[in-house]
Amino acid sequence: QVQLVESGGGLVQAGGSLRLACVASGRTGTTDVVGWFRQSPRKERDFLGRITWSGGSTTYADSVKGRFTISRDNAKNTVYLQMNSLKPEDTAVYYCASRTRGAVRYNYWGQGTQVTVSS
Questions:
Q1: From CA 101, how far away is CA 119, in angstroms rounded?
Q2: Would you call 119 helix, strand, or coil by DSSP?
Q3: For residue 111, what are the CA distances in angstroms to 4, 48, 63?
Q4: Is the pLDDT of residue 41 over 90?
Q5: How, if at all, do strands 10-13 and 113-118 pair?
Q6: Are 37 and 95 within 8 A, CB to CB?
Q7: C-beta separation of 117 from 87 below 8 A
Q8: Can you list the positions of beta strands (E) in the chain?
Q9: Whether residue 55 has pLDDT greater than 90
Q10: How far is CA 117 from the centre of its chain?
Q11: Which of 22, 28, 35, 50 makes an SS bond possible with 96, Cβ 3.0 to 4.6 Å?
């Protein structure tokens, strides 16, 4: 089992920045990839990007490329989502999720952290 806990959400003005953190615990040795997602009311959960746990390779959705950056600190078992130039439409609950080696889907999810961007 892997447990994920997000933090760092809050209220920010448009144009501002936030850094979210996702701390992993448990059997993190089996983790292959950690991804970030978000969900707004009445919308589907959107993929934002991911990072490989060992090599640190990143992939981003076109919607956030150039504004959001994912990084990791393996010593702290933490993955970060740096969000810059925030817009009101970025308002959502942000989730991190991990996928273990050999899994097809993300199989562990955090509880989410609310990000609200005011205009």
A1: 41
A2: coil
A3: 8, 16, 23
A4: no
A5: parallel
A6: yes
A7: yes
A8: 2-7, 10-13, 18-26, 31-39, 46-52, 58-60, 68-73, 78-83, 92-100, 108-109, 113-118
A9: no
A10: 17
A11: 22
Q: Is 28 helix (H, G, I), strand (E, B) or coil?
A: helix
Please tell me whether residue 29 adopts helix, strand or coil conformation.
Answer: helix
Task: State the Cα–Cα distance between residues 41 and 45, nearest whole angstrom.
Answer: 10
Rounded distance between C-alpha atoms, residue 111 and residue 100, angstroms? 18
- Read off the pLDDT of residues 72-88 as tens digits, 9 standing for 90 and up: 998 999 999 999 999 99
Q: How far is CA 115 from CA 6, 23, 25, 26, 108, in A?
A: 11, 17, 23, 26, 21
Question: How far apart are the C-alpha atoms of 4 and 23, rounded to whole Å?
Answer: 6
Q: Are 4 and 98 in contact (CB under 8 A)?
A: yes
- In angstroms, the CA 113 to CA 101 distance is 26
Contact 51, 34 (CB under 8 A): yes
Question: What residues are paired with 16 via a beta bridge?
Answer: none
